[in-house]
Design brief:
32% helix; globular; seven-stranded mixed beta sheet; homotetramer; alpha/beta
């Protein structure tokens, strides 16, 4: 059994990691840490898990974490992760980081969007954990920068089409909608029930920090500069993320070629489902699963394509993809511990 | 025009008061105060009201409030209200207090449920603002203790039946359900969207502070001791409160007598609608209005009655009833400023 | 008092018309019809309105409707409206039609999107009821084709910018999201609570019939052809519609010019609020009102503009705008009966 | 592998059975039937399951079902089940029926609540499938009458206390709240999103057909007559059922004894969790699981107990308990295929 740990286990992402790893057939969850809740039984924080999870939050003692684990998930705020990853790697642990700290190869891009990077020497060792696109690198990686939820939902449909030269990586528009759990567990007026219920609105219009993350990866895939106009919206539901993407196509593209390209790219991917035209992806279809469902529509008026994707923002958009990456890094079957059959409601 | 003010205008109750009073045909809203937001335009806090409300939050200067108003609404936390009411009354203002501070005639009962009372000398002057029950006293009052939302929803159906001796004021059970706005605007984990959505649960089982408030008023109406087992629940919706009340009946009661008693008690009440058996009150029917809808069902098995009521917790349960009381105190038509036609959705 | 009637009063749009007109200070609602519910008290269908509305559904007898009214609202399915409007107009009634039947000047465009038109001779007499854009025509009109909800939300932000030549009417993208009431009151699996709750998805991708309606009006405003890629989405909330619109700009455009153009266009419009950058429109801010709130963001990457609008789909998107048009047709103040102060929740 | 089938697989209960049985380690789901959808791929009805479920709906050919299965689940309307069970039993299949047809031992009680019973000779062979209470009988049963969702939520907390003589089976009050999926998948105005969202109301007050079911089982457990006043309510959420139960206690009862009795009764039950006082059960804690969480509160005023329980109405309230019963009938571990770790949101 692989010994795994979670540093920062009490947020919503941590809580999904605890759930997934507690039920994983090939790992033992040996340690979970929380600075705020050290000493507290996990089920005192999350009573839902009573009787199924029997863990106590530990202080964030990295030496102990390293001693008790082979692989560690970091579910920490950005800027904190970068200081924790180094010591764990040095002690021989593999690290899957769910913050933004290791998603950029270029420290300057990171620093534009976030703040000074204190461990830039690790960036070269990090692999971007968009599993279906970087699977080969992930297999050999010691350090994963797990993607943001929006980038996962936007890049999975675009990646094969951009790589094949069918879609122009410049001038892409991504109109994305996220459930509220993406905002995390900290209380604020923005996530007060009465402010979200019966509400719908954009936020951080073109200024969201996932925008440069998406452009950097798109450019990496395309081998040339990419630009993307990204508008996130908040939807009154707990889990789920939907992206509608408007992209210009090159002369080679057609409805058939796009379909063929997507199908071929993901035919062996156990968590990507390419929908037929007319079978429109719905966040409810992937709730509680690690799937990304992708639909597409040829937009003759604009000689472009409309791509539609849905994920569960906490799973394929965070904890699920992190476990999927762990599976690949560890030589497990990619679906181990993630094989939930979706519920229809 | 009556000059009115609101002390503590930025919570959800204050915000509904601002809306109602801004649209009231016979009052001028001359001053609103907020310690936290003094100097801020009200529409910066509540952009929804842009173009319709043009007020700036003032510091809590009671002298100025008294000088500029004839009647003041206090939408303050309990314990704060009791220190504010006295000076305003002394300056000749009428006061409608929406906290718990003036709901009890007996300071000891208040102090059991809350904390020491610093203005017990005012309790005798305060009238409990359950409009339909204490209308005569309200007409002459200088100081109103506006009822809690749960007491309003529970007492309106019970009051006439208890007064008529058809229902036993002992051993009553009130199983009540409230929308989330009842918890106020302050962020906390308890009102985080993800903790409320798809959730339903009781809270403060038999320990809610509205319990002694209800028992005291029931006893006042009955002229003998009352006891009530009260279990509140949180429902995933923004506005609305539903109560299902199980009461034992006396030998005189019957389905017909209960119906007749309720209909007669409220035939002249513009905001109480007695539903026929089979026409079950729904919180959606009173959303955004000052109505209390009441249904009833004879429970032959228990020789008792099942009463069902619905209100909008922010209106008949708070700001609406406060304005209704102001109307009566000021000789206005009881429905002035409150005559919204309910929307079906 | 203007005598008004509603033909087809029992759907959600009809129900909002009943509510608005029952509370309107200058009209008398003399007749409402329903083929399905003739003879039924309106409050048996919508108990929420008990005590405030006292109407009985009448059979659809156009002669009687014409005799009892000066102006009639048609809240009927398309194809039915076109057969009803003629006789009412011939009898001297003004008509505000809420179906699609009189929204197109060109019968061929209508017939492409819907079905054969049986009263094409009336199309020339009809004025498109997008109030803020066609106010002058509406003032003189006998017959109004009230706009669809999506067109209202998309055209109000675009119209001044297209008219001023700042935005290119070709290649516009409208990513729109609607609450469920837009689907009407007829039960179906698509509006089953369990299929909508915790769901979010696009539908009728580029094939929605509001698409040609928007293109025709945009072209009329621009004086040249327009093309628009329109993707509607269903949001789990009852009332509200949000549109995020991505449009290319001409060389003359800039953030300042766009702001100035929008502000000037709507400075005298009582129901359009132009938001400052950073103050993002939210459907919750316009719930239950006739407002359209518009925000905008300069998209330097694409030399384009991102427009964001919100309306209540049943009010500014249907019944509210219809009443606003009636006000103008009748020489009333444009805000009569529509002056609700928005609630913040 | 046990060969199992589902007759009537396309409703919400059937859909959960398909999901659970497809993922069950010891069964093969050999046949699913649907009269309405015979010949249709299951994932055309429920696209969420694409890639994980590969079944086609079969016509309801009982001979074929019997030939291909060892145990059959009937997810049919009542009255239909009773005609199907006999032939399957005769052919040697075990049957778990999820309708009401085999929940009553006494045909007269059934016929009072439902309609004439056409297979009363089978009633003696049927065991009521409230697993934790009738586990021994279930082990040997050929035919299970799987309990209703409300009875499961009400009887699990009451059963041990009534059996121990601590709670009086007469005069019990059950105030219960159900999510919308309990109403099934058929579209109707009652489950239209706009009628349920922001709504909360009781329905079928004391007339719900689960009322006699609960009284009959309570009486069986108590060994004397039972009476129960039952008021169900509809909550705006998809999955979940909460019951607050007010019961009178006998002289022997106390808070400690109640706690001890509940804990002892369920100490070996893998799906019942007794909560400490103050740790209040929430439907969100059991969403997607087979758990029943039970809380309790001593009500000194009434010398009674307040019991609070939560279940997922589609799982412990239907499909989950059915699979649990199958496990016991088949000698499997009771938790096989049901061991989901609850998610906190």
């Amino acid at each position: 059994m692989l010994r795994v740990g979670i540093v920062g286990a009490t947020g919503y992402t941590g809580c999904e990691l605890v759930r997934l790893l507690s039920g994983h057939p090939k790992v033992t969850l040996t340690v979970i840490t929380s600075r705020q809740h050290a000493g507290t039984a996990y089920t005192d924080i999350y009573p839902a898990m009573s009787g199924r999870v029997d863990l106590v939050c530990q202080p964030q003692d990295l030496g102990r974490v390293a001693a008790e684990t082979d692989l560690v998930f970091l579910a920490l705020p950005h800027e904190v992760s970068m200081t924790v990853a180094g010591p764990l790697l040095a002690a021989g642990c593999k690290v899957v980081d769910l913050s933004a700290d290791f998603r950029f190869r270029d420290a300057a891009l990171y620093e534009d969007a976030y703040q000074p990077h204190h461990a830039p020497e690790l960036l070269d060792r990090a692999v971007y954990g968009l599993t279906e696109v970087y699977r080969d690198g992930i297999r050999e990686a010691q350090l994963i920068g797990n993607p943001g939820c929006y980038p996962t939902s936007v890049l999975l449909p675009l990646a094969p089409l951009v790589a094949a030269g069918l879609v122009d990586p410049a001038g892409v528009i991504a109109d994305c909608k996220s459930g509220v759990s993406g905002a995390g567990r900290s209380p604020s007026l923005a996530v007060h029930y009465c402010e979200v219920n019966e509400s719908f609105k954009p936020y951080k219009v073109t200024t969201h920090r996932h925008n440069p993350e998406m452009e950097a990866i798109l450019a990496d895939i395309a081998g040339k500069p990419a630009s993307l106009t990204f508008v996130p919206h908040l939807v009154p539901l707990t889990r789920g993320m939907q992206s509608t993407i408007y992209a210009g196509c090159t002369g080679d593209a057609s409805a058939d070629r796009i379909r063929a390209c997507l199908r071929e790219a993901y035919q062996a991917a156990p968590f990507v489902r390419i929908r037929d035209p007319g079978d429109i992806p719905d966040v409810l279809h992937v709730r509680g699963t690690n799937f990304c469902d992708i639909g597409f529509h040829w937009d003759a008026k604009r000689s472009g394509v409309i791509l539609m994707s849905v994920i569960d923002n906490l799973l394929k958009g965070a904890a699920g993809q992190a476990v999927q990456n762990m599976n690949i890094m560890s030589g497990f079957d990619e679906t181990d511990g993630l094989g939930f059959i979706p519920s229809a409601l």
